[in-house]
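look at this one:
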Amino acid sequence: MTDSPPDIASNFVFASEVAAARAAAQPLVALESTLISHGLPYPDNIEVARSAEAAVRAGGAVPATMAVMESRPCAGLDEAAMQRLATAEGVKKLSRRDLPVALSGA
């Protein structure tokens, strides 16, 4: 008997654009959300994030801005999620070492 690797993708929340790109085997580019939550003041942070996503689209790929929202890994952010990251107080900056705790909801 062989063990299959876990289906990690089943844990993700995919934005509709990202889900469609995955289904169509289109190229995806992961973008970090730190510049939205920690990099620049509002509303500059939203404008820069939108510009980065537009540049990815212009290059023929689909942007997937990555974030952990409500203890779930998200690939691609809708407007409401982007606004929440851009304006919320106390958004945690995560690195690989922080992901288990962030995903556990602790």
Helices lie at 16-23, 34-39, 44-58, 79-87, 99-104. The first strand starts at residue 13 and ends at 14. The radius of gyration is 15 Å.
